[in-house]
Design goal:
heterodimer, A: 405 residues, alpha/beta, Rossmann fold, Arc Repressor Mutant, subunit A, 5-stranded parallel sheet, two-stranded antiparallel sheet, 54% helix, globular, B: 633 residues, mainly alpha, two-stranded antiparallel ribbon, 64% helix, 5% strand, elongated
Chain lengths: 405, 633
């Protein structure tokens, strides 16, 4: 039974239509690859990562964590360790590592015989951080140690969501020292991935809503993640979207006619799960009694769904580009989006004017990134055409220019 | 039935039974919320939700009624533990304090003191905020585990609480607690989509599912009023509701469909349908003043400035008009307007090409005018408009004579401005009828209907709007002869004269058109010949089109024409608005074309052209078009 869960990670049965992606990713992981799942926010990366973590199979111990709230390597490292300590497989091995043993002792010291048990908390982050004493390398060493001392038939899969956001935070806004420290941290993570002793025993899956490689390239360290394969999480294809809508209508007891369903999907053009979920939610809010007709669906899309998506969801599509690109590239990207948004047929690449400092190579790199991230369709040759009607209308409105008299 | 108390500002003070008795609208939203908890399966992510709506839209009532339903339903009560926070939670500045208070409230809800004792122990002994958060959150999870129930936490004014916390890491931690788990279900309320959940730079971006409480529909408003009346055992009130539907609809519009204000306005409707409207308005505004003041003070300075400008303008205004009023750059103004729209202070009217903005709560706008405007015209217009919407024509008519005798500033018609505004408002109301008996009872109309007074008024009008009297005399004669033939009745001449003034000078035609309407009605009833009636009507329509006389008056005249003429005139109106005339039958096109030339000539004041075209237009109908040949619409 599938629910229309708006805003949340889809878990269990609610995570629909990603079987192929999950199978692909497991194939890469079992082949010894490390993955960076890319896509704008709310496209389902976390849900896919969680789905993998919830069902890792026999060989893998999977840990899923979101580091978005962290602002430094020590924060990320502590968060990883905190999740490791919660993992039942890891807990049993706790005292086998030097750090784990120290932490265990600290936790025992916190317990008192009077009143509530202080040491009951699942989050002993302070203990961990205290023992790390600001040195993230200790955490990475501990991970390495833990894996090496684990049974040979066990492997650790670390699924870390939104590390690129932390990277952008530090590399774009940190002090020189903080930036250097973060680069060293990324380098150490790379070293961990490349460690021959850990091949096949440790895999990373990162999730990111902004272009990690572009960011690293801008800061002069493109090699730090070049061992990680990028996997672009795209929207559903139409068949899956139709299945989702059918199942949702049945489970939510909101029976749209076939024409209405077709109209709904046609309105979107591109089938990003969270977009469809917001659309369904809005449709249901505005047509509570009788499910709408096809015409009413289209009207709801124009009058309500677009408005809600624009105010609650789509601004990220513009803002993430500002974090990914340099200033000049961002301006060029906006020009491309603005031109393409004027018509469902988009615009020819040659017809987009950008500043002189953007040479052809940079221009086409921007085009490629926008296509890869799902802004433009890949099927239009040398034209920049929006795949998503929702996105096109959003950018048409957001990037409109004043009419000069 | 014992009358139910009302707590418009504090629904939490009501018992569940009282809340249920007064829960009249928002059934759909309640069903949505209940579906969220009914369909949840163990281990699945909870659907955290925020109820968004301006003050008085019913957020608290909805949220509390939802919690009542959860408690009352066996299957839900087994699975969920409501923990409603008080509406004002000013003491929460971090997650530790949030969970501490949650544990204290949990004890209140369950009757088990251990949770409050634990929370207080940690709060007193643990000085470190991060540790306090860890311990208290762990206690909540312990309740979750031991009871098997998921804490359902209601946080009102979520935007304020998040604003108080004001720490990205804390909010990221909250997200981590809530994301993809069913440890806690968070239900919040807020007056708008605030930054913490709508800005993609923030951790909780698009994280909460919003349920937006929009304005009440007409039907919902009626239901609300009936529910209030029933809860008070007020049979008379129910009768008033039945007979005052138009006024209730007006109230709905002026209050922006706001349930709280509609409930307050019910009192006015109930107690003084024929009372002194202005005094009642002042009483109501006085009651609301502290609330209104608080609302304005919440805005940042520049947004406040822009809001001030929009409120002063009263009528829907474009961004450019607002920018001029506030003397700010249009792009800065636009950004502030967007903020005001987002926060529910201002609403958009119209489509994106001609978008205009006005204050959402019209009632609030009146308060604003009364408090802040020194422009008497604007104030008069605002109050009259508001009174018209609340009380309808009857209320306006009741103040018509007061306005007629007032010493207000004199308007263009030579009559007091407040009278002009009131009169315009009355005659533009869709329910206005030319022969409304209540109107005829006013001194103003009695004065108007005597012949001397009509002529006297017209002379006054002519003096006011024209200094070039020479030009008008020939046209008065011309039209009098041409269109009214041998009758030459003085009233027709007066009509012709007035319409000529109107069209040539493009004067403020609201009061004049109303006067014309009076004259027309009077003449209409005097006419004996059908042909003359038709000619008169045709004349009226032509001048009406040229002079932009308001549609109700035009429609009246159109109804007196034969179908073909009426169709031609309607088509001509469309043509003048640059729409196609393809549907006009060939035989009627010449006639219509000539009419168009006259209308255009009148509009431009081309006296010679008027004379030339008018001489060639027969005052009779064109030949009937053969059936089925593109008949005029």
């Amino acid at each position: 039974m599938v629910r229309n869960v708006v805003g949340q990670m889809a878990t269990g049965d609610d995570c629909f239509g990603r079987d192929q992606e999950v199978a692909d990713l497991w194939r890469y992981i079992n082949n010894g690859e490390h993955i960076l799942i890319l896509g704008p926010r709310r496209t389902g990366k976390s849900s896919v990562m969680r789905k993998i973590a919830d069902d890792p199979g026999e060989k893998w111990d999977a840990i899923f964590l979101n580091v978005e709230g962290e602002a430094s390597p020590i924060g990320v490292a502590s968060a990883i360790l905190e999740e490791l300590f919660k993992h039942s497989a890891y807990k049993s091995n706790l005292e086998k590592t030097a750090l784990g043993g120290a932490i265990q002792k600290q936790w025992q010291a916190l317990r008192t015989s009077d009143g509530p048990q202080k040491g009951n908390s699942q989050n002993n982050i302070e203990v961990i951080q205290g023992l790390l004493a600001g040195k993230w390398q200790r955490a990475l060493d501990d991970i390495k140690e833990r894996i090496e001392s684990s049974p040979k038939d066990r492997s650790l899969l670390l699924l870390i969501d939104e590390l690129p956001i932390v990277a952008a935070r530090v590399l774009n806004g940190g002090t020189v020292a903080e930036k250097e420290d973060f680069k060293r941290f990324l380098g150490a993570l790379r070293a961990l991935r490349q460690n021959p002793a850990l091949q096949g025993r440790l895999a990373f899956v990162f999730g990111g809503s902004i272009g990690f490689n572009s960011l690293l390239e801008r800061h002069g360290v493109p090699a730090l993640m070049n061992d990680v394969s990028a996997y672009y999480l795209g929207p559903w294809d139409r068949a899956i979207a139709e299945d989702f809508l059918n199942e949702l209508c049945t489970d939510e007891e909101y029976l749209l006619s076939d024409e209405a369903k077709a109209a709904f999907l046609n309105c979107f053009g591109q089938f990003v799960p969270s977009h469809l979920q917001i659309g369904f939610d809005e449709l249901r809010t505005n047509h509570r009694g009788q499910p709408p007709t096809a015409e009413e669906v289209e009207q709801c899309f124009q009058e309500k769904i677009l408005d809600r998506a624009s105010s609650q969801l789509l601004s990220h599509y513009l803002n993430r580009l500002e974090q990914t690109f340099s200033e000049a590239s961002f301006t060029a990207a906006k020009e491309m989006l603005r031109h393409a948004a004027q018509s469902p047929d988009g615009v020819a690449e040659a017809d987009v004017n950008v500043a002189d400092e953007i040479d052809d190579e940079a221009f086409f790199a921007i085009c490629d990134e926008l296509r890869r991230d799902g802004y433009f369709t890949k099927q239009a040759g040398d034209r920049l055409v929006f795949e998503s009607h929702l996105l096109r209308l959003f950018f048409k409105n957001r990037l409109r220019q004043r009419t000069r008299g | 039935m014992t009358p139910t108390r009302q707590r418009l500002y504090n629904p939490a003070q009501l018992s569940p039974q009282e809340r249920a008795a007064l829960f009249a609208v928002r059934d759909g939203e309640l069903t949505d919320l209940l579906r969220t908890v009914k369909r949840h399966k163990k281990g699945q992510a909870c659907n955290h939700t925020v109820i968004i709506g301006a003050r008085g839209m019913g957020k608290s009532t909805l949220a509390l009624t939802f919690l009542d339903k959860v408690r009352e339903t066996k299957t839900l009560a087994k699975k969920w533990q409501p923990i409603p926070f008080p509406e004002e939670s000013y003491g929460i500045t971090n997650l530790g304090e949030l969970w501490t208070q949650a544990l204290e409230l949990l004890s209140d809800e369950t009757g088990d003191p251990q949770w409050a004792e634990t929370a207080q122990y940690h709060f007193r002994h643990e000085k470190d905020d991060a540790r306090l958060e860890q311990y208290t959150y762990a206690e909540l999870l312990r309740f979750r585990e031991e009871s098997g129930k998921i804490p359902l936490i209601l946080l009102e004014n979520l935007d304020l609480i998040f604003g108080q916390i004001n720490d990205e890491k804390e909010l990221s931690k909250l997200r981590a607690h809530l994301m993809g788990k069913d440890d806690i279900l968070l239900l919040g309320t807020a007056t708008h989509l605030f930054d913490e959940i709508s800005d993609d730079k923030n951790a909780l971006f698009a994280f909460l599912r919003p349920i937006t409480l929009g304005p009440l529909s007409s039907e919902a408003c009626l239901t609300l009023m009936r529910t209030i009346a029933e809860s008070e055992d007020d049979e008379e009130g129910l009768e008033i509701i039945k007979s005052c539907r138009a006024r209730i609809e007006a109230i709905r519009q002026i209050t922006g469909g706001n349930p709280r204000l509609n409930s307050l306005s019910y009192r006015l409707l109930r107690d003084s349908p024929a009372g002194d409207a202005k005094e009642d308005l002042e009483r109501l505004i006085d009651q609301q003043t502290p609330y209104f003041q608080a609302r304005i003070e919440k805005l940042p300075p520049q947004a406040r400035k822009v809001f001030h400008a929009i409120a002063k303008l009263w009528r829907p205004a474009t961004t450019r008009e607002i920018a001029e009023e506030v003397r700010l750059d249009p792009s800065k103004t636009s950004a502030q307007i967007a903020t005001l729209v987002e926060r529910g202070y201002v609403e958009k009217i119209g489509n994106s090409k001609k978008t205009k903005y006005q204050v959402v709560e019209r009632f609030y706008n009146v308060y604003y005018l009364i408090r802040f405007t020194r422009n008497e015209s604007q104030l008069i217009e605002g109050i009259i408009d508001f009174l018209g919407n609340i009380f309808g024509i009857y209320g306006l008519i009741s103040i018509l004579d007061k306005s007629y005798q007032s010493t207000d500033e004199i308007g263009e018609s030579g009559l007091p401005k407040s009278l002009e505004v009131t009169f315009r408002r009355i005659t533009s109301d869709p329910s206005f009828k030319i022969d409304d008996p209540r109107l005829k009872e006013t001194k103003f109309f009695q004065d108007l209907f005597t012949d001397e007074s009509v002529e006297g008024h017209i002379e006054e009008i002519v003096k006011q709007i024209s200094k070039d009297e020479e030009k008008f005399i020939p046209y008065n004669n011309f039209f009098g002869e041409k269109f009214f033939g041998e009758s030459g009745v003085i009233k027709y001449r007066i009509l012709a004269f007035v319409l000529t003034m109107l069209s040539i000078k493009k004067a403020n035609n609201s009061i004049i058109s109303a006067l014309v309407c009076r004259i027309f009605a009077k003449i209409h009833s005097d006419l004996e010949s059908g042909a003359s009636k038709r000619n008169l009507s045709l004349f009226f329509v032509v001048f009406g089109m040229a002079s932009n006389i308001e549609k109700p008056l035009l429609s009246e005249a159109l109804n007196n024409l034969k179908k073909q003429e009426r169709d031609s005139c309607r088509a001509l109106i469309s043509w003048l608005n640059e729409e196609t005339l393809d549907h006009i039958p060939a035989e009627a096109r010449e006639f219509t074309a000539k009419l168009k030339m006259i209308v255009n000539a009148v509009r431009t004041g081309d006296y010679e052209a008027i004379k030339e075209h008018a001489e060639n237009v027969p005052p009779t109908t064109p030949a009937t078009a053969p059936a089925g040949e593109g008949a005029a619409r």
